[in-house]
Amino acid sequence: MIKNLPLMPDQASSFAAQSDLIYWALTLLTVAFTLIVFAALAFLAIRYRRGSKADRSRPLHGSHLLELGWTFPPLVLGLLMFVWSAKLFSTMYGRAPEGSEQIYVIGKQWMWHLQHMNGIRENNELHIPVGKPVKLTMISQDVIHSFFIPAFRIKRDVVPGVYTSIWFEPTRAGKYHLFCAEYCGTQHSEMGGWIYVEEPAEYQKWLASGGRRTADTQPLATTMEAKGLQLYEQQGCGNCHDADGLSRGPSLAGLFGTTVKLKNGATAVADEAYIRKSILEPNDQIADKYQQRMPSYKGQITEEQILDLMAYIRSIGPRPSASTTATPVSSATSGTRVHTATAGKPNPNLTASNAAPSRGN
Ligand code: CUA
Q: Most buried in the list 26, 172, 338, 346, measured by CB within 10 Å?
């Protein structure tokens, strides 16, 4: 079988088989056309060699049939390959399925730093469950790296200043190579590690143990949300961003994923890129009806901390409307937490066992 050839890495994700099929179809087409061209070449060279007795009395000056024949079949085949591979490409690089496991990746010279929503951090290792889609949101702290897992057939550049993302669904438990696939300095070749795909039960055990063997992890990791909230308080974000947006800055309650009106008349979607930019370059996107008063936090907080803050901001549900302020809305049914009066009040629900539900974008 093809997949047992030592040339090919394991097929361990839902993209692998399809990606290989496209690879082999392209190879087959290339070989077939090469053979056709070279067979014709050899045949004509031998038949019409100098001194041969071939009939040269009716030279051919044009043939529509021949030209159509070598134009349209290759065109159609080429377009089919394009549509086929574009479909797979847009699935891989498109929106991750709802309910994906969220993993944050930070690339730096020369290691991979991986962060689970429940706060577990891993270096050059990633534990994930089999059979569940995983979405990676990635950024670099220095130069361009590239996150490459051959067994999953995924690779995407990790770029400073911009979030990139990719998703995959591991289909087989096992241990798979992780590489950096972009030359990023002297120790580029050492920038790699392992992906551990575990059975769901085993994975839950690993999560509960707080990521055993990881040196920089506390036995019970703090969730990204909780760390974000801590930072939110430390930095005093709530002084300006109160829940009702009546203070100096707009409210952050329920902000994530909404469309924001800007002072210059434009609109922007409050996604990861928008929030990161607002923290580091607050002059660029000023919310409508507010003055620019926010200092830049560039150089003062790390990419890790931005991700933590983002996790907290994502977790703040819509602010209670006038009719519901009296009775606290149960967050169990809506799935989103309700933002309580003053931002920055510790939320007792923020424990490792109920990390923020992903919104799957
Ligand atoms: Cu990082 Cu090569």
A: 338
